[in-house]
Amino acid sequence: MKAELRGNPTPISLQNPNIIDARQTTLAGALKGCLGSLDGACIEKLLIHCASALESTDITYAQQVMWVLNNVASSVGDPNQRLTSWFLRALVSRASRACPTQMSFSGSSALNRRLMTVTELAGYVDLLPWHRFGFCASNSTIFRAIQGCTKVHVLDFSITHCMQWPTLIDALSKRSEGPPSLRITVPYFRPPVPPLLNVSIEEVGLRLTKFAKLRDVPFEFNVFEESLSEGLSTDSSTFDQFESLLTHMNPLKLKLRNDETLVINCQNWIRYLHDESKGINTSREVSLRDSFLEIIKSLNPCLVLVVDEDSELCSSSLVSRITTCFNYLWIPFDALETFLPKDSGQRMEYEADIGHKIENIIGFEGFQRMERLESGVKLSQRMKSCGFLSVPFCEETIKEVKFLLDEHASGWGMKREDDILVLTWKGHNSVFSTAWVPCGLEQGELDCT
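The structure assignment produced for this chain is given below.
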């Protein structure tokens, strides 16, 4: 029997013949009220049933739950239905790998994404304040931290192809004492996750250089250690790529200069560094995540910015990850519903990128599972344990972020949790932004004059 997600051009095949009798099972009888239901609590209950079945390798039971989910899911329905369609897709994909003879996933994976142009990427970033929130808070903090500095070097670890920097360059061009010399260095490697761009990082650097020239800002763009991937095979894992990157992160390879003020920017990056050991080449086994933080601390930056999505998705339990993921990722689906029609191509592409994330969170385990979010509170505890002091955001930065949010739907808001700045949607935490200095740095807090 073949069941398809309504409105989804890629069919999902449930090939076990036992699924034909799913309507008569105890599960279907107990949950028959969920068929066609738009209730999120009911959908969450079904997802937990399915996750439990998959964790216990009861594929038949999992298929029966998927049949019920398939009657709820729709890629062109309301936010709950659209979100469910991506969860169902991820569950089928996981089950097909666990038991390929009983279940198969037909059609292309959500991982296959169209490459964006730079113009399309700009529109993508502007669609929701999901990325701009972190850009705004970080740029404002950087601007104030480097007042009086004549040479600034930013190490940029992010996934949005330098979309953060035109705004900062523009602000620096208007600085009363004149702009500093700005150098931005990015790693050659980035996690293979959306958004994906149709030009190289070198081309991005050329475009930034032209923009900086138009703004009369002295500018230099470097790609950090292109040769680091030479010793890796083409099928090297993301873990291996990150491990190779970290072994090259030293002042010499980064070309750090004593007369430059160093800023390290981490936007949606740390989550991809695994929090479990795999024989890292150090005197003691530590995770990639802690190794990265120890390395950037040793570079003695004047400021470290860390921005990421505010959710906890590191659990080894599939049930726990599904519950947390479902209760978190409804936020962008719900936000898009407020201003884009159901058949909007832009909306579907944005949701497909979220689907990519869901498939990795639900469909994979071990070092194949790249998406390993930790909440702002937990990340702050980690930063403090690694020898960093938090820096509060000043009132001018708060005003700038509020002004940004005023350009978007009224559901978006902002709150402070200690020194963490949090983007919210209808009161629910979405993205956190933090600022840090290494312990012992004389500059205990940033000047906001």
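Interim note for the steering committee: Residues 182 and 219 are 5 Å apart (CA to CA). The chain is about 40% helix and 15% strand.
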